[in-house]
Amino acid sequence: MEQLTILLIVIPLMVAPITALIPSEKITWLLTLIVCLISLAISGYILYAVIDGSHVIYELGGWRPPWGIEYKIDSLNAFVALIVSGIGCLACLFGYRSVPDEIEEKTIPLFYAAFQLCLLGLLGIALTGDIFNLFVFLEISSLATYALISMGKNRKALTAAFSYLILGTIGATFFLIGVGFLFAASGSLNTADIANRFSTFEDMQLVETALIFMVMGIALKAAIFPLHSWLPNAYSQAPSTVSVFLSATATKVSIYVLLRILYDLYPIHYWVDMLLPQIMLSLGCVAVIYGSYRAFQQTEMKRLLAFSSVAQIGYIVIGFSLVNQLGLTAAIIHLFNHALIKATLFIGAGILLYRANTTELGSLRGLGKDMPWTFAAITLAGLSLIGVPGTVGFVTKWYLLEAAVEKGMWIVVITIVVGSVLAIGYVWKIVENLYFRSKRKTHIQDVHSGDSGIAKAPKTMVTALWIGAALCIFFGLNTELSFQAASSAASALLKP
Amino acid sequence: MMEYLVGHINYWLIVAVMMVGLYTLMSRSNLIKKLAGLAMFQTAVILFYVSLGKVTGGTVPIISEKYSLYSNPLPQVLMLTAIVVGVATTALGFALVIRIKEAYNSVEENEISAMDEKE
Predict the structure, then answer these.
(1) Which of B41, B78, B96 faces A158 most closely, judged by CB atoms?
(2) Which residue of A has its CA nearest to B54?
(3) Do strands A447-448 and A70-73 pair parallel, antiparallel, or not at all (unpaired)?
(4) Is the N or C terminus of chain A more exposed, i.e. has fewer CB atoms within 10 Å?
(5) Distance between the two ends of chain A, CA-based, in angstroms?
(6) DSSP codes joined into one string, A25-90
């Protein structure tokens, strides 16, 4: 059992260099899918073992903590690892036809190698209990991400990747400075050790500065408003498979790090006294309104979805800055729910891009009638994004509203309602263009839109899309599993 | 006051290097200069860690009967990793700049964004 945890890191680490050397797109795809499936199985198994509140502890190299690096897995760790590997599988399934379409043949093995390294980095962040180790994994996943984004078809992908590289590195370096300050104060890098001995160095000014540096650095990585400027370009220019994977995992994992810092590393009363919850709550509210409004303005589907991500991150921020059990549970559930919804929608956008070679809503008019299955799944995911009862989005919003009412924060309640109304607006925009507008006969990739050729999306893509859409409904109706994992994680975080 | 300033001279200098890096990064339009600023910024953090581990009068951490005061070796070990990360970031950044130069025929950020907007 203990050995299984490290396999999550070791398998992609060993397979990635091999993948880079194999000159066949099919085999590299298969290897990546196998790695993702194994990771999914292991993290599912670990989550099943720790959901009752127990821990799985692995000491790297047999060194006892706090000297050695320790992986201490509780339900939150396992939950995030499950999200990452599950979305990895979906993205991989989708990528079978999408990657050869968008990436040059000779770079496909490198693409999959980078994909596995990114998976490895994100899994590592989710599992490790050592803050310096976390920084290293953060940089592994980020470096892989920059490379993946830059492989987009349009040359704008290069500038998007470059500006993400600059901002991401600043964020990671800020985090490193914070870790240094905390290390100077505590003499330790182990999360549990620092938390246990916190009262002995609590009075130092350094500790407060360290918190601010770490929160700032990670907020940049998590694209919390107003530090989100890299996100829309990066997600909309990246190859479709990468958009699917990153939109669902990268920011979620950063939010997870933020949760760990605020709730685990530092005692809750410490940062509640610093006005931090109020600041983050207001930023979250602004993010919801701003992100939804900007999404509403967009005319290109991937950009629209990227701005909607900014808004959805706002909901998560609101959830955990309410500092109560329900709010925290809502935030953790939404990590999962939003990952599902956004992955599904980006897969939908990827299918449209594959068939019509564009995601400009104006050029996609009427395509929904030719692609009923794809269109139906996109609509289902869109409804989840709005938060219609029976979908995953509703579950989050319900708990979030309950948490806000419990705290008496009416302004938050209003924000959530306004955000949902704006979400109806931008989802309707997609639906209207795809279904209710009359067709435009345009030549796209030598195929008339409206021809039967354009209507046939590859089976693997549609399967991935429908797995995502079905899960959106399944976890909306059957909330037990996700709720149990999230509330067990939330109570572990809130425990003094 | 004077003692405080002089006693922390290494930190003042490191903060100066850090700010020069950050300023270069933000103020320059040339992508290569931006990367140079980024590298300086990262280097300053590395210097900060290394100076953190220094103990006045301490020796290298090798067990010997003659010495009882050692410098902390851990920050230096950590920074070996951070240096590798920094090199990888800079290398990837330069690779991107080369691709950008091929695609846009320019490495000036304002020219590139002007070209992007025209599309």
Answers:
(1) B96
(2) A184
(3) unpaired
(4) C
(5) 28
(6) HHHHHHHHHHHHHHHHHHHHHHHHHHTTS--EEEEGGGPPTTTS-EEEE-HHHHHHHHHHHHHHHH
Domain count, chain B: 1
Over chain A, what is the mean pLDDT?
87
Closest alpha carbon to A39 in A14, A4, A77, A1: A4
Strands A56-59 and A70-73, sheet pairing:
antiparallel
Q: For A83, left (φ over 0), alpha (ψ -120 to 50), or beta?
A: alpha
Phi and psi at A468, nearest 5°, equal -60, -50
Token pair for A314: 């706002």
CATH code, domain carrying B86: 1.10.287.3510
Q: Are A303 and A236 in contact (CB under 8 A)?
A: yes
Mean pLDDT of A393-407: 88
Taking only the tens place, the pLDDT of each residue in A10-45 is 999 999 999 989 888 889 999 999 999 999 999 999
Tell the burial category of A111 from Cβ atoms under 10 Å away from its Cβ (0-12, 13-18, 19+): buried
Question: Is the separation of the CB atoms in A281 and A322 below 8 Å?
Answer: yes
List, for residues A321-351, the tens digit of each pLDDT value.
888 888 889 899 998 899 999 999 999 898 8
User: A183: burial class by Cβ within 10 Å (0-12, 13-18, 19+)?
Assistant: buried
Q: Which of B96, B99, B100, B118 to mutate to probe the A interface, most A CBs <10 Å?
A: B96
Q: Rounded to an integer, what distance in angstroms lies between the CA atom of residue A493 and that of residue B88?
A: 35
* Confidence label for A72 from pLDDT (cuts 50, 70 and 90): confident
Yes or no: say if A324 and A407 are a contact pair by the CB < 8 Å rule. Answer: yes
Closest residue in B to A164 (Cα) is B93
Is the preceding omega at residue B75 within 30 degrees of 0, hence cis?
Answer: no
Interface touch A143/B88, C-beta < 8 Å: yes
Could you tell me which of A167, A189, A180, A161 has the C-alpha nearest to residue A254?
A: A167
